[in-house]
Amino acid sequence: MTRLSNIRAPLDFTIEWLRQEAARQLNQPADTLGDVRLLRKSLDARRRTNIHYVLTLGVGTPEEEAPRALPDWPFPHPPVIVGAGPAGLFAALTLARTGARPLLLERGGDVDTRKAAVDAFWAGGPLDPECNVQFGEGGAGTFSDGKLTSGISDPRVGQVLRELHRMGAPEEILYEAKPHIGTDLLTEVVRRLREEIITLGGRVEFRAKFVDYWRDNAGLTHAVYEQGGTTHTVPTNHILLATGHSARDVFEFLHEKGVALAGKPFSVGLRIEHAQAEINRALYGDLAGSPLLPPADYKLATRLPDGRGVYTFCMCPGGYVVAASSEMGGIVTNGMSLHARDAENANSAVLVGVSPADFGDHPLAGIGFQREIEQRAYGLSDSYHAPTCTVGTFLKGRATTGRPYELPPSYRPGTIHALPETYLPPFVTDALRDGLTALGRRLRGFDAPQAILTGPETRSSSPVRILRGEDGSSLNTPGLYPVGEGAGYAGGIISAAVDGVKVVERILNVEA
Q: pTM of the entire structure?
């Protein structure tokens, strides 16, 4: 296949336009080219008077993308994977293809049961601390924008994307520079991944909570989990911990067992909402509203004079701010979009970087820091109604009540009016005030007075790293394999899935 890169294309390009452009660049008749396919598409909107696509095309017979061959599972007992997020699902799928017959344990429900529990909570019902936005089949990313971007350069990224497409994700994820699936489509993808694992001989158990492991002088011997009030003990020499960043009880239990852990930097802050139409105008100018353009997104960052960073994260065009609590008596927010990204509001986290210097050197100190913020927010109303205010009132430092917001907050089950300093530490709110103003200079209208701030956002990444060695196993507990974002080795759906695949390869001693 011949690759043609850096092709500038109009917003309304067609397949025939691609063929004619490829023929022009190769200087040969279009009817002799064979297959012409789109390999990559990115939108260049740096100049609002010249918005266009930049494409990479493939011409000719496509290369076969065969999955990497792995040896058969050589160990006597099936491996156990804890957590059915992207890291756990892809580790289980990879293991199932080796004949390992893996056991995948998920403390929450299957994706359909989970969606029902989340919808009920957002409608004002009780929180299920075992099945919510953080816990359940698909992991936290299922209730998000479903972004598939990744900062890592690894051939396994393409493997993961092709697998997601095979499971029902739209073909565009294979060539979009900023691919996303959306919560509505992710649920079906996750369901098909589970079915494939089972078809290949794996087991998937829901409402199955990992609570312990046994070991002897030779290493791990058993995994222990609870399900339906019964304790189950299964023989295994390999436990893959893909628990996600909110499994605080697992971190606490591992610390008690003496597993090597370390606190790590993460970020806290809140979510900001604008009208999507305003973001479109800021980034697209006169072309805002064109059906040829996707809902505009942004990624902003600044470094304050004291060296602390403030940045946007997980921007959700045409989306919603959602209740993402997983502990009773604590408020957590996140962002979510459906595939169409057609809701009226855009939202993004605005975060301040924090480190052990801010919250302490104990491996679990970051969890305590997060929990205190979440509980303070809950205590403002003794409910899961999130505290909100406008950017204007926050920057003035003065709360105002009695007036409806010009831009209605999208968060459910409801909101109360409160300034961020009522639940965030002073050094965070000081950084947010300076950061909002600085980011407003980078994107017109970002710090508009009518924009809505909803908080807190505390779960941007894991506050703990489960230390592991070159073989992928825990530094001091051989046979225990920390995997993915919760273990501190990934940051998003794709990198977590890739880490799940890589750890399996390390267990099988497959060279990189």
A: 0.95
Amino acid at residue number 171: E
Q: Is 357 left (phi over 0), alpha (psi -120 to 50) or beta?
A: alpha
Residue with tokens 């046994």: 214
Number of Cβ within a 10 Å radius of residue 192:
16
Nearest to 325, CA basis, from 116, 122, 83: 122
Model pLDDT for residues 398-429, shown as the tens digit of each residue:
766 556 788 999 999 999 999 999 999 999 99
Cis previous bond, 456, omega within 30: yes
Structural domains of the chain, ranges and CATH numbers in brackets: 2-59 (3.30.70.2700), 80-262+462-507 (3.50.50.60), 265-457 (no CATH)
Instruction: Look at the block and give the residue holding tokens 């230390």.
Output: 467
Task: Report which of 508, 482, 502, 478 is spatially closest to residue 218, judged by C-alpha positions.
Answer: 478
- Which tens digit of pLDDT belongs to each residue from 129-180? 999 999 999 999 888 888 898 888 899 999 999 999 999 999 999 999 999 9
- β-sheet bridge partners, residue 36: 59
Mind giving me the DSSP string for 348-367?
EEEEEEE-HHHH-SSTTHHH
